[in-house]
Amino acid sequence: MRLPKLLPWQRTLWAAMFVQILSLMAFQAGYILIPYYIQDLGITDLNDVARWTGAYQSVGSVSFALFTPIWGALGDRFGRKPNLVRATIGTAVMMAVTAFVQTPTQLLIVRFLQGIFTGTPSASTVLVAASVPKKQIAFALGMLQTAFFVGISVGPMMGGWIGDAVGYKETFLISSAVVVVAVLMAIFGTVEPERDAEELAAAQKGSRNPLAGFGEIFHNPVLAGLILVNLMLSLTFSVISPAMPILIQQIVKAGVQPASVAGTVTGVGAITAAIAAVTVGKLSDRLGHRRTTLFGMIGTALFYVPMGLAGTPLVLGTFSALQGLFRGGIGPSLSAMLVDSVPKDRTGVALGLNSSAASAGFGLGPMIGAAVVAAVNTRAPFFVAAGMFGVVCVVASIAGRRAEQAALSAEAAEA
Question: Do 388 and 236 form a contact (C-beta atoms < 8 A)?
């Protein structure tokens, strides 16, 4: 039986999904090992481990936040596909380099460079958003979000199991080899979206100074509001990141290796989030992006409390899985609102700014989480995250309503 021929945007979507899965699977395989890798590098006190872990997570997010809009603007001008290939190659190289560090300080330096030269999720999102028909954007971004969650669910489990079996350094090298496959998929599987002369001229004019992309925030209040929501959301998500692996290390039974347990607990939550992402991506187009975003945020906030009270990895993993059913629906709906808020020729800049905001949040959150761990204990960040999510819900409701009103006004003007 002959397989149906895919349209260019469909081919790009499927290829970008596989690139996303492989790249994030490899990255997360190493990421879950960092608290234990830091202990191998000579840091043994768990409070100090939390601080170094928070610093590692933050420094990469800061460099990523600074450079993603620049790469996004350059992608708008020179091509979205080359930008994806660039990010994927950067991921493969930096994963390999991580295996050869000798001190925690060297690890931080490599992580900073990683933030500069990588960014596969952002590059994939820009390429897909520019390729698919407008009526398919929420669905396509939902599929891409599903790929995101598949990668970050399989990755920690793969990293934990391989790390416990063969060693942490070897896991980074294996992860790098996996990303090489993603590089080939990005080169041969994706298609650069066609642009008419007017759109191309606008992109080139707006991209002469890549740093000018930051000015978009001050000229588009709807975009600014959505970017603020994403920053707050990422900050809240990442507050628990230094605490989670250390809490697992504290509650596992004696003699059990924590890396594989941490990978499994993290992975099951990402699996349910992946299921939610593809489901909500379709529903969001019908029910409204703002409504589905708020529903996901409220459910996510509620499950932080029982996660903080969990006494065994099984209980923690169960509540993480239930939380994922709500968490997975937030990203596609929020991204769809953002794409609708800007002209198509500025999609790359807008999504780059959005990724920068997320990275800024991911930079601040781990530092806050590490400080809370040092001041209180490893359970406290979960309760802090639950309270912060309440504030995020209020801001998201206001920003989402403004985005809906702006979209309705734009449709009326076109009519």
Answer: yes
Length of the chain: 415
- Give the N- to C-terminal CA distance of the chain in Å, as an integer: 45
pLDDT, tens digit (0-9, with 9 covering 90-100), for 269-309: 888 887 887 777 667 667 777 788 888 889 999 999 999 99
Provide the residue type at 239 as one letter.
Answer: V
Residue 51 identity (one-letter amino acid): R
DSSP state for residue 134 in the 8-state scheme: G
Considering the entire predicted model, what is its pTM?
0.76
Angle among Cα 299, 302, 307 to the nearest 5 degrees reads 120
Is the alpha carbon torsion for 95, 97, 102, 108 positive or negative? negative
Cβ contact 150:21 at 8 Å: yes
Among residues 241, 204, 234, the alpha carbon closest in space to that of 346 is found at 204
Q: Please give the DSSP secondary-structure letter assigned to residue 252.
A: S
Residues 6+ apart with CB under 8 A from 117: 86, 87, 90, 93, 94
Flag whether pLDDT at 216 surpasses 60. no
Tell me which CATH code domain 8-414 carries.
1.20.1250.20
Please name the residues in contact with 286: beta carbons below 8 A apart, sequence gap of 6 or more: none
pLDDT tens for residues 118-174? 988 888 888 888 888 877 777 787 788 778 878 888 899 999 999 999 999 999 999
Name the DSSP letter for residue 345: G
Distance CA(324)–CA(303), nearest Å, equals 9
The whole-angstrom separation of Cα 149 and Cα 329 is: 11
Alpha-carbon gap, residue 88 to 85, rounded angstroms: 5
CB 400, CB 294: distance < 8 Å: yes
Where are the chain's structural domains? 8-414
Assign 341 to helix, strand or coil: coil
